[in-house]
Write a structure and sequence with these properties.
The structure holds two protein chains of two kinds. By secondary structure, chain A is mainly alpha-helical. Helices cover about 75% and strands about 0% of the residues of chain A. Chain A is built from eleven helices and no strands. The longest helix of chain A has about 35 residues. Chain A starts with a helix and ends with a helix. In chain B, the strands form two sheets. Chain B has a six-stranded mixed beta sheet, sandwiched between helices. Chain B has a four-stranded antiparallel beta sheet with strand order 2-1-4-5, with helices on one face. Chain B is of the alpha/beta class. In chain B, about 35% of the residues lie in helices and about 25% in strands. In chain B, strand 4 and strand 5 form a beta hairpin. Chain B contains ten helices and ten strands. The chains are: A mainly alpha, B alpha/beta. Chains A and B meet through helix 8 and helix 9 of A and helix 3 of B.
Chain lengths: ~260, ~260
């Protein structure tokens, strides 16, 4: 399911050539009426199918980039905190707790209202709201791994602490963090949709959130305008979650075999 | 006798656990002459592993000095110490914990070469193969990971890793206690052969006096952080002067049969 979504998102220019923002036909055409616009058209007469496909692109791009950024920050912070311990650990974990007390969505919203709604800032905003959990999990794993003999063995052969942390310990701590990635992607999809719905998305791109927001004004006359991207969202979040579970399960069995 | 290679004087280390202070090392003096094997025997909890970890600078003692060929190991800052690491190595008790689970035998054996610039990259594989041959392992193990080896094979790889930098001292921390009885003698014979060939000195930590008798020339018996008896193996075993030694001797059934 996720593979299909990804394929659609990647192939957007082929599947739906032309600018999705362009006006293609009569406004508010309901779905299943004409072959030219199978899912109908919106308030301005733009093709809904084309918007949906291009929206998938933005949504998935923002979500995966945000999750990657969140994991990167989280893993780096968690590794340093867990490996160095002491006051560095204390300081980093207090910072993470401070971030955790603020709702992630508000944090993202605040950042975007300051910096303006562009894709990179949206990605960064979501990442800043989501890096704490991977940081905590990485730290916990590192803490349990760093007492193991192979870490002592690495010191004995003269490896530098930084290399021990990132080359010896971290790769063995990644499994539970990677399974967290799916949860973050799913959350990022929803945050991005909510941001777009509130009008804080990138105005030059279609996203599913902005499609729902636009459909809202004509909800009674053309409910499909909100329902179609809504279904897209539900399916995407579901697909990401299922994939994440599958990956976690595969990694667990591999770990036990080892 | 020649100047000792390793000189330990007045070594102290206390741990505080659950509010109680325990002296793991309570003023230990010990010498290891070059090219010989000195055994440190004692029941578990007598402080012998703490001593091994202090010598390797994995644990910092509270007081005392450790000199290796005239250099005060405890006075060196970590970066300088790293450059000396090739000269003293360690074999850990549990070979299944002493290797990064994700690293192949090749990486485990070439890491010491890489870290100390002992061989250019294109020679690593040949050097690793030579090390495998030295510990009498077949060359096809080189691309395996630790969990694909038997316990005895892993410990041989650990010995190969310790000898990769051509050290003058190897600390053997219970090198055969995690191994099957059937492979113990083979590993002990191997250690003896390697000493005869390379002139490396061993500091052998063991609770098993049968192991001590197999390869050590001198033995020190530890109890509660102190050395209570010290002398040539044959002498100490024939005329134990302390209750500790008699108890350790009585714990070796094979000895009474011999």
């Amino acid at each position: 399911m996720l593979a299909i979504l990804l394929a659609v998102a990647l192939a957007a220019p082929i599947l739906a050539p032309g600018d999705p923002l362009a006006i293609k036909g009569d406004p508010l055409l309901p779905p299943w009426q004409t072959m030219a616009h199978p899912l109908g058209t919106d308030r301005l007469g733009r093709d809904v199918l084309s918007a949906l496909i291009h929206g998938a692109r933005t949504t998935l791009l923002v979500a995966t980039a945000a999750a990657a950024a969140a994991l990167f920050i989280g893993i780096t912070v968690g590794t340093i905190a867990g490996f160095l311990g002491g006051w560095v650990d204390e300081a980093l974990m207090r910072v993470a707790e401070a971030f955790q007390t603020v709702p992630a969505f508000l944090l993202t919203l605040a950042l975007i209202s300051v910096t303006g709604p562009r894709v990179p800032t949206i990605v960064l905003g979501i990442a800043i709201g989501a890096w704490m959990q991977p940081a905590r999990i990485t730290r916990a794993e590192i803490l349990s791994l760093r007492e193991r003999d192979f870490v002592a063995a690495a010191r004995v052969i003269g490896m530098r602490p930084l290399e021990i942390a990132f080359r010896e310990v971290l790769p063995n701590a990644l499994t539970p963090v990677v399974s967290l990635a799916a949860v973050i992607v799913a959350a990022a999809v929803l945050i991005e949709a909510a941001l777009s719905f509130l009008g804080f998305g990138d105005p030059n791109r279609f996203t599913w959130g902005s499609m729902i927001a636009e459909g809202r004004t004509v909800l009674r006359r053309a409910p499909f305008l909100s329902i179609i991207p809504g279904i897209g969202l539900v399916l995407t979040v579901l697909a990401v979650h299922l994939t994440g579970q599958g990956v976690a399960k595969a990694l667990r069995t591999r770990r036990h075999a080892a | 006798m020649a100047d000792p290679l390793l000189t330990i004087r007045g070594l102290r280390k206390t741990f505080t656990r659950a509010g109680q202070t325990v002296a793991a090392l309570d003023g230990v003096d010990l010498d290891v002459p070059p090219g010989t094997t000195v055994a440190l025997a004692g029941a578990s909890g007598s402080g012998k592993s703490t001593l091994a970890r202090c010598v390797m600078r994995l644990t910092t003692p509270d007081a005392g000095t450790i000199h290796l060929a005239g250099t005060d190991l405890l006075a060196l800052p970590e970066p300088v110490l790293r450059t000396l690491r090739p000269r003293f190595q360690m074999v850990f008790q549990d070979p299944s914990a002493a290797f990064n689970p994700r690293a192949t035998v090749l990486r485990a054996l070439s890491d010491p070469l890489r870290l100390h610039n002992l061989a250019p990259r294109h020679e690593w594989r040949d050097r690793a193969l030579a090390l495998l041959a030295m510990v009498r392992l077949p060359p096809d193990l080189i691309d395996r990971r630790p969990h694909e080896l038997s316990g005895g094979q892993r410990q041989r790889v650990a010995i190969a890793r310790a000898l990769a930098t051509n050290p003058s001292l190897v600390v053997l921390d219970e090198p055969v206690s995690a191994l099957d009885v059937s492979v113990r003698n083979a590993v002990l014979n191997l250690l003896q052969d390697l000493q005869d060939r390379t002139g490396v000195a061993y500091l052998l930590i063991s609770h098993d006096l049968a192991v001590v008798r197999a390869i050590a020339r001198t033995v020190a018996i530890m109890e509660a952080g102190r050395i209570v008896e010290h002398g040539p193996v044959a002498e100490v075993f024939a005329h134990p002067s302390t209750e500790t030694t008699r108890r350790l001797l009585a714990a070796v059934p094979r000895l009474s049969l011999a």
